[in-house]
Write a structure and sequence with these properties.
The protein has 158 residues and is of the alpha/beta class. It has a single domain, classed as Rossmann fold. Helices cover 32% and strands 23% of the residues. Helix 3 packs across helix 4. The mean pLDDT is 95.
C-alpha cells in the first residue's frame, strides 16, 4: 500500500493576468508552515509531483525543505485547468515506475485537487481550503485508492 497526499497550495495573491506567476501571501506561507510541520510528524513524503505554477512550487519547496526526496517532478498536467483523468493516470504510472517511493505528495490547485481525489477514489470530492491535504491509501496491485480524510491548517493542533 502506498500513501498519496494531495495538497492545495497556500493562500496566493489575487487573480492577475499571469495566473501562473501568482505567489504565496504571508498567510499562505503560514498555512504551508503549519502543514509542513504536520506532514513531517505524520507522513514522510519520499516523492513529490508539483504544478509548475509559482505558488505550488513555493508550497512544495517549504513542505519538503528538510526532506530527502527519492523522486521529484514538476508536472504541467496538474494546473487548475488540467485534466483530472490525465493527472490520475500519470500519477499511477509514476507510482508503478518508482516502487521505492511509498509516500507521494502532490501539490496543485483547485479545482484539480478535488477532481483528482475523485478520479482516484470515485465518489469522494472534498473541497480544499488553501494549504489543505487529502490523505488516500493506494493499492498499487489493484490500482485502487481509498480516500481517508482531509486536513487543513485551521484544523491542525498547534
Amino acid at each position: 500500500m502506498k500513501t498519496i497526499l494531495i495538497m492545495r497550495h497556500g493562500e496566493a495573491t489575487p487573480m492577475q493576468a499571469d495566473d501562473a506567476a501568482r505567489q504565496l501571501t504571508l498567510v499562505g506561507h503560514q498555512e504551508v508552515s503549519i502543514m509542513a510541520r504536520w506532514l513531517k510528524q505524520h507522513y514522510q513524503p519520499d516523492a513529490l509531483v508539483v504544478s509548475p505554477y509559482t505558488r505550488a512550487q513555493q508550497t512544495a519547496n517549504e513542505v519538503t525543505a528538510d526532506i530527502a526526496l527519492k523522486f521529484t517532478e514538476t508536472c504541467g498536467d496538474i494546473t487548475p485547468e488540467g485534466s483530472p483523468q490525465v493527472a490520475a493516470d500519470y500519477l499511477e504510472t509514476l507510482i508503478a515506475l518508482h516502487p521505492e517511493c511509498d509516500t507521494w505528495l502532490v501539490v496543485a490547485h483547485m479545482p484539480i485537487v478535488s477532481y483528482l481525489v475523485d478520479q482516484l477514489s470515485v465518489g469522494n470530492m472534498p473541497i480544499f481550503n488553501t494549504g489543505a491535504v487529502a490523505l488516500l491509501r493506494y493499492d498499487e496491485i489493484n490500482q485502487r485508492s481509498q480516500y481517508l480524510s482531509i486536513h487543513s491548517p485551521n484544523s491542525i493542533e498547534p
